[in-house]
Amino acid sequence: MSCGEARKTDNCMSDDKPRVLVLAGKSTAQQGLVEALAPFFQVDVFENADEAIGSLRHEMYAAIFADVGDYLPLERTLFDRQASLVLNTIGEGVCIVDDTGVCVWANNKMRSFPPEVYDRVKQTCISAQSIFSRQVSPHHGKTHETPRMRSKKYGFQVGNDRYFEMIVSPIVDEQMHIHQVVAVVWDASSGRRLQQKIDAIDAAGRELVRLESEAVCKMNVGQRLKLLEDKIIKFTSDLLHFDHFCIRLLNKRTNKLELVMAKGLPPEALEVDLYAQPEGNGISGYVAATGRSYICHDVEKDPRYVLGLSHAKSSLTVPLRLQDKVIGVFNIESSEPGAFNEDDRQFAEIFARNVAVALNILDLLVVERYTTTGRLADSVAREISAPLNDIVTETQTLIDDYIGDDQMRRRLGSVLDHVEQIRQAMRDVGGAPKTILGSADVSEDADASLEGKRILVADDEENIRQTLCDVLTKMGATAFDAADGHQAVTIIDREVLDLVISDIRMPHRNGYEIFSASQRRDATLPVILMTGFGYDPHHSVVRASQEGLHSVLFKPFKIDQMLEDVRKALGIEDEPAPSPAPDQAAESAEPTEEA
Predict the structure, then answer these.
(1) Cα separation of 44 and 21, whole Å?
(2) CA contacts within 13 A on the Cβ side of 529
(3) What's the pTM?
């Protein structure tokens, strides 16, 4: 039994009292101090510093009583113990390596690393020590430490999927010699994988917006939309591992979030009307209104969640931003609770920015085409205006010269009619989305193949809507007209129809929603969509084409083209023109003076 142990009192061994250490000295050896402390503390008394230091290495004390001269070695022991505790608690590996490559000390984390990591660290330390030694240079007869030798950062890979980083610092003695270095090592695999994924998503985003190549320029609008949609679906699935998602764009006129593309979500979820409002419009409406991403860890406990994936448990929604403006939302669903974390949010936000840019580029291409076509029509109209005026002037002069020759005057009048048709055609092209080419040339005779067919025409442009209805009525069909999407859906639900012809962009419902309503009413009901120069802000053509859309009319279209598509949609084969009767054939064979 040690001297210190012999002097422990029975009344100070209670475990519920704080423990203190008394190192006997000139002022602390008095029995009075121990007796004063005993009622309140568990007192350990030691006669010499070695015993006290040995106890400090194994026990925890609330206080230490010692002479000033005896306290310095005790303080050093306490510091060493606390430093060791800290170094063995931190998450990084720490070791000290000498100039022969021997690890003279390592904390618990360092010793837990695989042997190949341990060996690589020692090799790197030897290399760093050599560099540090060369950076010690003479200065006024002495050596000094240069700023470059303070620390160096290294990284190395172990195997195929683990990456480590380390910082090596020199230990310099009083003579400025470096015999040891200290290394701090940590596993950076997750951070490196995170950065690699961000780089991959960034590369995928650049691929999305590469719409200027020669191949893409040769595509029509529908093909461009399909290409972009395929890319978005591929990258979303392959890189982000999101298999159930939808993208909605904000309609600035109505504040509605229009669905443009989706994958893996049920039809009933896609038909929900959502608006960019923070309350009452689900998580998507909240994100679109506030511009803040939203992770829903449990859909059953989140009051903002509305219908999505069947048996959905969690969701992630991020805004589609174009510069500082929110133009839509990117919503992802999962059948697993808590499936999304902050990394997923960051990935989705990066990808969503590129999606927004790509969609905007498509819109700009369409607007450019629309504007260019209009300018070209105006330019051509100006160029041919003077020659047409000359033709009109000369023709009218000739008509005056041929007074009394009715046959020649009729032929000259026909020239004036043709000039007016040319002018009207140029005006029609310049006002493309609001006109139909060749509507004035439709025969007044009914078409037996269209007799009795019930056809809905939906377009918010009254001129187009009325023209199509008039033409179809002349051909013998029964035409229904709708000025907006709501009227169109109402007619589809109420009437038995043979065909639906609808514009893509209308108030209250877009083209895809009209198509979907038609399919719900009758899966065999054919639908033809119309769009001005291919303008399709909600990707109705792409989505409906995947589900059975019959055809698309790009305004301005000719009435003959429309009738041809109508017959094909109704399953009516074009019949060859009947042969003329013998007397008619003979009559047509006789030369006339006009010919």
Answers:
(1) 5
(2) 32
(3) 0.50
